[in-house]
Design a protein that fits this description.
The protein has one domain. The protein contains two helices and four strands; from the N terminus they run αβαβββ. Strands 1-2-3-4 form a four-stranded antiparallel sheet. The N and C termini lie far apart (125 Å). The chain is rod-shaped. By secondary structure, it is of the alpha+beta class.
Length: 137
């Protein structure tokens, strides 16, 4: 009786391992791309928020100037004020502080200088400060 040889298992292809390595490298590259996109989106969001803060601070400085001039019309001896603007008046969830100071112009004593400093959002590490000076009669 002839003996039959047992069937031999097929030899694994050397390409089989390289496919796994390729898949892992592709997954790693895709992860890096996603992380980069998330970082870019986060930076864009922060910049947009910073622009919002800057715009709001400029508008508050303008309003502070108008407020100071109105106070001077009502009270000619008006000298200073710290105006805290609550969040609900701004329509946002952040408060603001506007500092108003009136001094006599050293060059033209008949005129007064109104110094305005607006801070938005108040008490936040990312606060934006805008300063202005106006000449008041």
């Amino acid at each position: 009786m002839k003996r039959q040889r047992p069937p031999t298992a097929p030899m694994p292809s050397p390409r089989r391992g390289s496919a796994i390595v390729f898949a892992l490298v592709a997954l790693f590259v895709a992860s890096l791309m996603i992380a980069s996109l998330l970082r870019t989106a986060s930076m864009s969001h922060r910049q947009l928020l910073r622009d919002e803060f800057r715009t709001q601070a400029h508008l508050l400085a303008d309003a502070g100037g108008e407020r100071a001039l109105a106070q001077l019309r009502k009270q000619p001896d008006f000298t200073d004020e710290v105006w805290t603007v609550p969040a609900d008046q701004l329509g946002f969830e952040r408060t603001a502080v506007v500092r108003l100071k009136v001094i006599t112009d050293p060059v033209r004593s008949a005129k007064r200088i109104v110094a305005i400093t607006a801070e938005y959002p108040a008490g936040n590490p990312d606060v934006v400060r805008v300063s202005r000076e106006l000449i008041a009669p």
